[in-house]
Every structure is written in structure tokens, then in C-alpha cells.
Design a protein that fits this description.
The complex is a heterodimer of chains A (450) and B (384). Chain A has 450 residues and is of the alpha/beta class. Chain A is built from 16 helices and 15 strands. In chain A, the strands form three sheets. In chain A, strands 7, 8, 9, 10, 11, 12, 14 and 15 form an eight-stranded mixed β-sheet that branches. A five-stranded mixed β-sheet of chain A has the order 2-1-3-13-6, covered by helices on one side. In chain A, strands 4-5 form a two-stranded antiparallel sheet. In chain B, helix 2 packs across helix 16, helix 7 crosses helix 8 and helix 11 runs antiparallel to helix 13. The chains are: A alpha/beta (450), B mainly alpha (384).
């Protein structure tokens, strides 16, 4: 019996190994180029540089795979670049798995506020990307601060995507609003009441005066922060404690509630949201010729219509002006978000990762990368061509340079997001008053920072 | 260890196979040795060896992928362990549990929401499954097609396409669900009053539960003050905190296919003679269902209740699917497992998340034990 069993097991083992050898993970076509690798002693051992990107356009990925990666692989024989495409929906679960295991992609895609969240687990890249190692670093604009943690570079920013106020001037006029984009809180609330229209048949909005981030609640924490900064608010006091007990925080919260009620009515008798349409909410539906329903949009450029849409002849782009009448420190603000690529501290290929970043973030490459998405490059010297040729993008770049405030440096950003969303959710249902909301955030966020 | 990634894959695969074989031999030999010590015959020792040898891959898998993670989770629940921090896990004793059970308002909110979904959603889910099973048990034409159609949601799960469909269907203004409600209430005005009454009652109940979360009942008072909604009011499904939980319940009901199949199997098992005898005695269809079918279905009801309650107490996907990208609404419907996910994978507090998972386990265990203790009072096993 033993002998038969041994034979059977041996066959099983051989079969398993054969099957494993045939599995798709093994031997991508690039390995065929191994003879070349053997010619360069330093690269005798093949290495795979893994990059994890989130929600990039097919054009961007195609460009990276057809131009950047082959060029990098040619310059580094024996190195294969592997791009994995993920999504912003569920990224945090995926990333926590990488960090828990201490193994994963060498380069990961992060958002503006995530430098504080992951900072300790990201590699210090000063040695490879600092000014002494790479002179190009001085060409990066203020977005570079978002790729920094604890005074050290952790990666490089790709683009800057500020949030503007886009308004349809034709719809404003049609609704009898002649004052242009509102420039203080009272005007905004009056504008919301006057311009928003309800379809009696469906008891839902058919025109919404302002659509900020999260059109339904009108109380997203990122929108709140933009309003808060426009009042001259600072997120932290001099001693580092949160500043949600400031007058600016209370005013921003009250503004959220006033706008929500002026648009949707009281929580106990709210009307329905705008129907879901095709394309940007301030655009026109080509199929029906009807407007998608929003008069103003407070969002990033990518949520606005494509630059070649005819609707642009009636769209203004402005910053959010705050409330100068009541808060003298108010200032026009565009809240600048950006994506950046960071090198994980667990990566055994930090130097290679830095080399890839230098190639993908050269002046021309940063320009090209952003051209595939219609966004503003993070490198100042890459803002030419399509950026200056497009009237809209040129204006956006100017406003960003003039009024840009970074969405970064937020301690315990994930916890603050949860705390604020929770409290602001209760604000719109009137379960909590604005005073209770800011007190709750102040208390919970203070505890989270300890 | 070779540095070549392709050789690494081969090496690891070979090592895994060798490891599994070694485990098989090891476990089989251990079992045989124990058998020998107990004085088992040579044949029995060989059989024992073979039995454990072939069962070993599953046993080893269970140990590695279930027992070991559970042990780590239990250990971490007594520590302050953050994935993104470079600090190792720090032993903090019962702090996570005391914080969770006595000081964490958000956990209390998630518990209340989960109970709402369980107490209101589960009976609706079971009722829908039972009604569908009874309909499919009529031996009508196309029975197989309908059975497949009603089971399809279980197969589809909650993927992106399903999410988009549901979001479109639940849109307040143009969603098909509200369109149907509008059409029906317009065509039959009497139903309009029922619809308004149902909306009012639902909003009052939800506002009450939301009040339990915060300890403040402002919203409840305002809903009551507002009175019966206007005639054109429709549910604000995925838009208002007053309707978020009901939207999740809709998804629960939609996924009742598994329960339906269990009920259908139960209905098929009921002897026809019992129905024929009742029919001869003059019992109507309604009476036959409640006096004959339902009592004999109670073991199946019990099974669905136990499994359904465990699933409801662990509900995550519908909440995640509907509200992951609509954060201000999350607090009104956050479930215990969503909170566990949030703490573990969004805030990276693995220690605290582990404590939540153990508390959930204990809650489920207690409720399940109570259900088993109470089954004698209402479950009939007479014909089985």
C-alpha cells in the first residue's frame, strides 16, 4: 500500500508542479528578452517593478504601457514594469492589505490628504528625488507639499485638480438672477431659493441652483472644508488642536444647512434630487436637448463638461468667495486636490521606483500624462500646449495659481472624514443643530488626534 | 531563496505541494500512531492513516486559514494595532472592549441600525421568499424559468452593474420604483392615501430609530409635526436618512432566492394526502395553507430564520454598495460589520476592529442559542 501511495503522490506532485509551471502568472512575453539581460551583468536578475494606479483613463494607461514602460525597460534591462489598475472605490481595503502584509506594489497611487494617513509606511525618497539627486524637482508646484510627510519626499504629484465654481449664465438669466456668481453667503442662499425649481409632478428638483460635491446631501466634508477655508478658517489652532469651535466653523456649518434647506426644503418634507443625467450636471443632454439640471457646479474640472462642448459659451469659472460681509478674512478659494504616486516603504526596489518616477514625471511626460486626462500638470514647466491653448484650462490654471489652497496636511484624515460625514449627515436631517455639529466634530476629532 | 520572480513562483508552488504532502503524511502517521497506542488492529491503523491522510489538506487549510487568523484576531483585540504605523501591536488588555461597549456611540448606532434591519428586514425577506415559494409550488407553466429568475439575484450578488441598476431604480424622480408608485396611486386614488400613510409611518419609525442613535428625537418630532405627507410625496430612497435603511431592506428582499428555494423544498415535502384530506373536509386554500402547510413548514422557517438572522446581523454588502460613495448617509444606516470594516480598513485600527468582530460573534452566538432554545415551542417535526 505504501508503495502505491508513494507512486500516486509522486505523480500528483509532478502534475502539480507542471500545472503551476503552466499558470498564467509565469513567464510573460517580456521574459523572452532575457538574453539581452544576460549581456548586462548588473541586471542579471529579473525584477518586476509593480505600480498600482487608481481610475485612470484608458488613454493614460495605454500611453504608459506603450511609451513610458517600454522606454524604462529598455533603459533597465531585466526590469519589467507591471501596472495594476484599481479603483477609488475600495482602495483603502486593498492598501491596508498591502501594508499589513508588508508586500505589494512598489509604487501606489494616493490622493492629496493621504500623506498623513500613510506617511509612516511610505519610503523617504529624498535620497533619490531630492534636489541634490534630481534637479527637476524644483519645477514642481505647491502640489509637491502633498507628496511630503514629516519633511521628506515620499513620491511625486501627477496633477492638480482644484475645485472651482462653474455657473451657467444663461440659466441664471432665465431664472431672473442677474447678480452673476454669488459672492457671499446671503446671496448664495437667496440664489438657491430663487433659482432651484421643483417639478410638482414628481416632487423632485428639476433645476438645482448649486450642485457641490455630493449633490444630494450638499454636506460633504470636502465641500465644508472649502467653505471653511474661504472664510479664512484654519483647521488647527497654534497648539495643534482642532479649530472646529471657531466662528468660521459654525458659519460654514450654518451655510451648509441654509443651502440645503433653500434647495430641498425641511428634512421632514424634503423634495427629491435631480434625476440622473448623461454627462456633467451643468451640461445639456444631447439626446433630449434638455439641461441636466444644475445651474452652478462647485467641483473639480473633470466634473465640468468636456472642453469642446458648446455649453462652454455660457459657463463662467470662478473661485468660491466666502462671506466677506461677515468675515473680513474671507478670501476667494479654489481647493486644490491632486493625485500623487508614492513609494511604499516595504518596496525592495526603491531606487528603481525613483528612476521610473523620474521618467514618468519628466517635463514632457508629465505634460503628456495630463493631456490624456485634460488636467493641469503638477510640474509648472509642463503647463504649456493644451493647457494654454484651452481658454478654460488656462483660466483654471490661473485661478489655481492665484487662489489655490491645498487639500493636504490633514491629520488622521480618514477619521476626520468619518467624523465629519457622520455629523454633517445629522445636520441635514436636523437631528443636530449647527452648534451641536461643530461641538461634536471638535470633541471627536480632538479625541482622534490623541 | 532565488531572486528571480518567476523561479520564486515555481519554488513557492513546489514548496506548497511538498508542505501539503508532508502535512498529509504527518497527520496520517499521527493518527495511526494514536490508533496503535489504543490497540487498534493493523487494518484499522492503515484505514485511519488513509482517512486522515486524505482529510489532511482540508484540516490543514482550516487550521491555517480559519483557526490561526481567529487566534491572531483574538490576540489583536486586546492590543492597539494599526496597520500603517511602524509601531508593533501594544497590549492594552480590555480597553478596546470597554471603549466599544460603554463609550462608543458609533458602535451603538451600528447596533441599533443592524437590529432595525434584522427586526424589520428579515421578516419581510422571509415573507417574500415564502410567497414566491407558494406561487412557484402551483406547478404553473414556466415554473423553472421563474425559479431561475427569482434565484438570479443570489447568483448576481452585489456587483457594480447591480449597484448601478439599483441606484437608477431607486432614483426619487425618475426611478422605476417611484414611477410605479406614482402610476398606481394616480390610477387608484384610494391607494394614494395608503401610500401616504405608509410613508408617514415608515418615516416615524425610522426617525425614532435615528433618535435612538443620537439620543435626540428632534427629527421624530418634526416628522410627526409635519403630519401626513402631501399627495405627490414618494419615498426618498437613497437620498434621505429617513429612507436609507428601507432601501437596504429592499435589497435584502430582492436577494431572498435562497430562502425561497428552501421553502419550495419544504412545500414539496409535504404529503399531498394531507391537503386532499383537508380539502375533503371543506377547508379553503387559505385554511389549508395556514392549518396544514405552514405548521409543517416550521422546520424550514426555523432554518431560514437562523441562517437569515446570522446574515442580517452580518449585513455589509447592501450598505456598502448603496452608500459607500454617499458618505453623509452612511451614519443613518451603518451596520455592525460596516463599522468593523470602517475601523479596520479605513481607519486601520486592526486591534479595535478585531474587538468589534468578537463582539459581533458573541451577539450572534447568544441570539442563535436563544433561537435553538425556543424552537421547541413552535417548530413541528411531526412528519419528519
Amino acid at each position: 500500500m505504501h508503495k502505491k501511495l508513494f507512486v500516486a503522490l509522486s505523480i500528483l506532485m509532478l502534475a502539480s508542479m507542471l500545472l503551476t509551471a503552466c499558470s498564467p502568472k509565469v513567464a510573460p512575453t517580456e521574459v523572452v528578452a532575457e538574453p539581452q539581460a544576460t549581456e548586462v551583468p548588473a541586471a542579471a536578475t529579473p525584477v518586476t517593478l509593480k505600480i498600482y494606479l487608481l481610475d485612470y483613463t484608458p488613454d493614460t494607461i495605454a500611453w504608459l504601457k506603450s511609451e513610458i514602460n517600454p522606454a524604462f525597460e529598455a533603459a533597465h534591462p531585466g526590469v519589467t514594469v507591471e501596472i495594476t489598475e484599481g479603483s477609488w472605490s475600495g482602495w483603502d481595503t486593498t492598501f491596508s492589505g498591502f501594508f499589513a502584509a508588508g508586500e505589494g506594489p512598489d509604487i501606489i497611487n494616493l490622493g492629496s490628504e493621504m500623506n498623513t494617513l500613510y506617511g509612516e509606511s511610505l519610503a523617504n525618497m529624498d535620497e533619490y528625488l531630492g534636489e541634490a539627486a534630481w534637479a527637476d524637482i524644483k519645477n514642481f508646484g505647491p502640489a509637491l507639499a502633498n507628496a511630503t510627510y514629516d519633511g521628506h519626499l515620499r513620491g511625486l504629484p501627477i496633477f492638480t485638480a482644484p475645485r472651482y465654481v462653474f455657473c451657467r449664465t444663461d440659466l441664471m438669466e432665465a431664472s431672473g438672477w442677474t447678480g452673476g456668481t454669488p459672492q457671499n453667503f446671503a446671496d448664495w442662499v437667496e440664489f438657491a431659493g430663487q433659482v432651484s425649481e421643483i417639478d410638482e409632478a414628481t416632487n423632485s428638483l428639476k433645476q438645482q441652483a448649486l450642485v457641490p460635491v455630493d449633490a444630494g446631501s450638499m454636506a460633504d466634508w470636502q465641500w465644508w472644508l472649502l467653505v471653511f477655508y474661504s472664510l479664512g478658517g484654519e483647521l488647527y489652532k497654534a497648539d495643534g488642536s482642532p479649530n472646529f469651535d471657531s466662528p468660521e466653523a459654525l458659519a460654514a456649518t450654518q451655510f451648509m444647512l441654509d443651502m440645503r434647506q433653500a434647495t430641498y426644503g425641511a428634512a421632514s418634507d424634503a423634495v427629491g434630487a435631480l434625476p440622473t443625467g448623461q454627462g456633467s450636471v451643468i451640461d445639456v443632454d444631447d439626446a433630449t436637448g434638455a439641461n441636466n439640471g444644475a445651474v452652478c457646479l462647485a467641483h473639480s474640472g473633470w466634473a465640468a463638461p468636456a472642453f469642446d462642448r458648446p455649453v462652454w459659451s455660457n459657463v463662467s469659472i470662478e473661485p468660491f468667495y466666502g462671506d466677506p460681509a461677515n468675515f473680513p478674512n474671507s478670501k476667494p478659494v479654489v481647493l486644490a486636490f491632486n493625485d500623487w504616486l508614492a513609494v511604499a516603504d516595504y518596496s525592495p526596489n526603491k531606487e528603481l521606483a525613483a528612476e521610473w518616477l523620474k521618467m514618468a514625471f519628466s517635463k514632457e511626460a508629465n505634460h503628456k500624462w495630463n493631456e490624456t486626462m485634460g488636467l493641469i500638470p503638477a510640474r509648472n514647466d509642463a503647463q504649456y500646449g493644451y493647457v494654454t491653448d484651452s481658454a478654460q484650462l488656462k483660466l483654471e490654471a490661473e485661478l489655481a495659481a492665484k487662489y489655490g489652497v491645498g487639500f493636504a496636511g490633514i491629520e488622521e484624515a480618514a477619521k476626520l472624514s468619518t467624523i465629519m460625514q457622520d455629523a454633517l449627515g445629522k445636520l441635514i436631517t436636523e437631528e443636530l443643530t449647527p452648534e451641536e455639529v461643530v461641538a461634536t466634530i471638535q470633541e471627536q476629532y480632538s479625541a482622534a488626534l490623541k | 531563496m532565488p531572486q528571480n520572480p518567476y523561479l520564486n513562483v515555481l519554488f513557492m508552488a513546489a514548496a506548497a505541494v511538498v508542505f501539503i504532502i508532508a502535512c498529509c503524511y504527518g497527520l496520517g502517521s499521527l493518527a495511526r500512531w494514536i490508533g496503535k497506542l489504543r490497540g487498534a488492529s493493523l487494518k484499522k491503523q492503515e484505514n485511519t492513516f488513509a482517512g486522515y491522510f486524505f482529510a489532511a489538506p482540508w484540516i490543514v487549510g482550516f487550521l491555517i486559514f480559519v483557526i490561526v487568523p481567529m487566534a491572531f484576531s483574538l490576540y489583536w483585540s486586546f492590543t492597539d494595532y494599526r496597520v500603517t504605523s511602524r509601531e508593533p501591536a501594544t497590549w492594552i488588555g480590555l480597553d478596546n472592549y470597554t471603549q466599544l461597549l460603554f463609550n462608543d456611540d458609533n458602535f451603538r448606532a451600528s447596533l441599533v441600525n443592524t437590529l432595525y434591519l434584522t427586526v424589520i428586514g428579515l421578516p419581510l425577506q422571509m415573507a417574500a421568499a415564502l410567497v414566491l415559494a407558494v406561487l412557484l409550488n402551483q406547478k404553473m407553466r414556466g415554473e423553472r424559468f421563474f425559479r431561475m429568475a427569482f434565484y438570479l439575484p443570489v447568483v448576481l450578488g452585489f456587483n457594480t452593474a447591480v449597484l448601478l441598476c439599483w441606484r437608477l431604480m431607486l432614483n426619487t424622480g425618475t426611478g422605476i420604483i417611484n414611477q410605479i408608485i406614482r402610476s398606481v396611486t394616480t390610477a387608484v386614488p384610494a391607494l394614494g392615501y395608503i401610500n401616504r400613510g405608509l410613508i408617514h409611518v415608515q418615516e416615524i419609525v425610522t426617525a425614532f430609530f435615528l433618535g435612538l442613535n443620537t439620543g435626540k428625537f428632534n427629527l421624530l418630532n418634526k416628522v410627526i409635526e409635519a403630519g401626513l405627507p402631501e399627495a405627490n410625496r414618494v419615498p426618498l430612497w437613497v437620498q434621505s436618512p429617513l429612507w436609507t435603511k428601507m432601501s437596504v431592506i429592499l435589497l435584502m428582499v430582492w436577494g431572498c432566492g435562497s430562502m425561497m428555494l428552501i421553502f419550495l423544498a419544504g412545500l414539496n415535502n409535504i404529503p399531498k394526502e394531507l391537503h386532499e384530506a383537508a380539502e375533503v373536509d371543506g377547508a379553503s386554500g387559505w385554511q389549508r395553507f395556514w392549518k396544514v402547510s405552514f405548521p409543517l413548514l416550521t422546520p424550514y422557517v426555523f432554518y431560514n430564520l437562523v441562517v437569515g438572522m446570522i446574515a442580517a446581523l452580518q449585513i455589509f454588502e447592501p450598505v456598502f454598495v448603496l452608500y459607500r460613495d454617499n458618505q453623509p448617509l452612511v451614519s443613518s444606516t451603518i451596520s455592525m460589520v460596516y463599522y468593523l470594516w470602517q475601523k479596520s480598513f479605513s481607519h486601520f485600527e486592526i486591534g479595535y476592529g478585531s474587538a468589534i468582530s468578537w463582539v459581533i460573534l458573541v451577539i450572534i452566538l447568544i441570539i442563535t442559542v436563544i433561537q435553538f432554545k425556543l424552537q421547541d415551542r413552535w417548530v413541528t417535526y411531526d412528519i419528519y
